[in-house]
């Protein structure tokens, strides 16, 4: 066992302006991030696994209505909630994911169950709902997911007849966590409610292994947030791992190349959190802000929103 361990989390990236952030809102988001950090770090400090740590952190963020995942998930075009989530174990590259799930209190728990209790990786829509129910995982009705702020966002998007990326100042985004445990194992998890007013069962990068979520002990663990379509087209998470594996680039250089160069070149806005097998941490983003935080075993901690 190693004495090096750490956890990194995010709560979405986008046009986040300090000018419109009230002290009350700043405090609430900071407390939400810290609660998730505590949930994951406590597990690591007790000798728990990175897989359990990232699930605990993401669960905490899903339970916080400030972030677009779980309880805070946005409304789709029909006034419903369609949530996506993924989790991956860097030790053996096993993974589980769900997309378009609607009643699960914690989509990340369903993704973990897919990984551990089926031969599949990704379950979608009503099938994912039925699986969650069969697994005895907590389900909630529409009232649990109702949020007046999210409802107003949806109404605004309906009137303008557009899809809204849920990561501007009004619209907080995807959540995720990556971790390195005392056994040297990496893990990653991502969860989201997607885009406000999305139609036709749209799915973003979050539940797609290699696009929005990736973990491999040989390289890194990554969770992305941003304009999902561009992250899918760029296979962002796996591209960083490949630059490290085949190109022998450092985590810092690989993240910088993908987020600040490749994504920018095609108009892809957003960011990601990453950690490698040595415990190096990167939190790059090409937008004006990203809700992010990390804590290392030496006590070093950072919680930040703006550049």
Q: How are the SSEs ordered, and which strands pair?
A:
Blueprint: E1 6-14, H1 23-45, H2 50-62, E2 83-89, E3 94-101, H3 107-117, E4 122-124, H4 125-134, H5 142-145, H6 148-160, E5 175-180, E6 186-192, E7 213-215, E8 220-226, H7 228-234, H8 236-245, H9 251-265, E9 270-276, E10 281-282, E11 289-296, E12 301-306
Parallel strand pairs: 3-4
Antiparallel strand pairs: 1-5, 1-11, 2-3, 2-6, 5-6, 7-8, 8-9, 9-10, 11-12
Helix pairs in contact: 1-2, 2-3, 8-9
What does this structure look like?
With 307 residues, the protein is of the alpha+beta class. The protein has one domain: 4-Layer Sandwich (Glutamine Phosphoribosylpyrophosphate, subunit 1, domain 1), CATH 3.60.20. Helices cover 35% and strands 24% of the residues. The chain has 9 helices and 12 strands. The chain has an 8-stranded mixed beta sheet with strand order 4-3-2-6-5-1-11-12. The chain has a 4-stranded antiparallel beta sheet with strand order 7-8-9-10, with helices on one face. Helix 1 runs antiparallel to helix 2 and helix 8 packs across helix 9. The longest helix has 23 residues. The protein is globular and about 50 Å long. The termini are far apart. About 2% of the residues have low confidence.
